[in-house]
Amino acid sequence: MSYYYYNYDEQMDDGEMDYDTIFEENQPIYSWENTFETCIMPSTLQILWYMSILIGWSIIGRLALAVFSRIQTKNDWLLHIISTLAGSSVLIITMGKNSFILFFVAGISYMILHILHQFAACRKNIGVIMVIFTLSAQIGSELIWKHQVSWQIIKGSIMVTNMKIISVAFEMGYCALNSRQKVIVPNIFSFFGYIFMPATLIIGPWVSYSSYLYSIRPNPSPRLHMQWIIWCSLCSVLSLCFVNLSNCIVPLIFANNTPIWMRIFRDAFAVRCSHYFVSFLSQASIAAGGISLNKDIKPNAWLGHMVTEPLQIEFPRSLSTVVRKWNIPMHTFLKEHIFRGIYKRYDSQLLAIFVTYLVSSLLHGEYVKIYLVLISLAGFSCVEYKLRAKLANAFNACITANNCRKPCRFKYCPSHGWLRDGSILVKVANLLFSILAIFHLAYLGAIMNESTMEEDVPEVRSFVDLTTWSTVSFLNHWIALLTYLLYLII
Length: 490
Description:
By secondary structure, this protein is mainly α.
């Protein structure tokens, strides 16, 4: 799952640019000095204002929870109200009247959960029903308001809210499938506290309902509070670095007259930096709010609970690694509530995979390029996974798409020692597959950074505007096809 940062500043017309002033100062348009003054500084100041609101209200909410958790010891309803009020405040400040769309969505969804709870047949399939309802409402709303700036502002929060609603519904469905457990709709205080918790409401990440309940009472340990401060500070700095890389620095490295593949790698890296910016900003937000993504997973010592892992994405072992590490909370959501939820009910792995990628695509709204990228990514990674599994078994070598478990079951593996026969060859083979994954990642990402915006072209063209891929004759799709043929032949 990816998130996007939208900049609504209108671009200056060419005729309005003061070229005379630039020439008089003897300063090139694309110089580093000019980039710093016209891009890096304005971008940093704008993000700092946004960051101060997001992180500031997360801290305020956390302090309020710390105070009232000592006063209210038996019931948590007051803590849920504090979470709801803090989230509503940051929502109204950042989105204005558009925030009432989110209140409406949350209210309607809670009513539907209660209605479905009244029928035994619906209780067992409540997760699937809520997936259909939330995605249908989101797609329908986007069809109506797609070209309005207000919808572009709110759609990220709508996406996160829908994920929370779906996860609550699936957790209720798990109880319904087990007749020994009683199905309970969360009370209205805990439901709205979960939906509107300020640390995750605007840009995510998705946090499970159980993690929210675990985090609602702050840990009084001073050492842990110091860790939260370090995590929030470092993630904020990384977020600022990545947004300036994406918007200002990366576009300056290679001009548009450079070879096509250099531009493809440039544009794809800019897209990934934009994703890292939002991910680390959301990571700083949950650190400020004291939210634990998963209490069973040990956080990073310096950065806290990881939303994304750039090093694993930039230097992946396989495309499967990219899928898992791109957005760790969303991958967990899709695996736990969509893939396993569908698989348990219909006992079909193929159907579960298809529904998982379909839901992942639709959660991003009506964005055809994302559909194409995700479908291509699914095909590329599936073919790579199957081929490497077959090669690993054929040569008894650790060249599978995923890292081998220790002790490794394969005969040839670098974990057994570099002096063992075949260890170096295994390392070289994995390196070649990593290079292929980087090549695919650049190809898939570049299309998301094409200069032609869908809103500026006719609707029909937006479905077929694949300039980047067509320029290189869809090379990576042909490579994936050849890889699949190799898999069949072996």
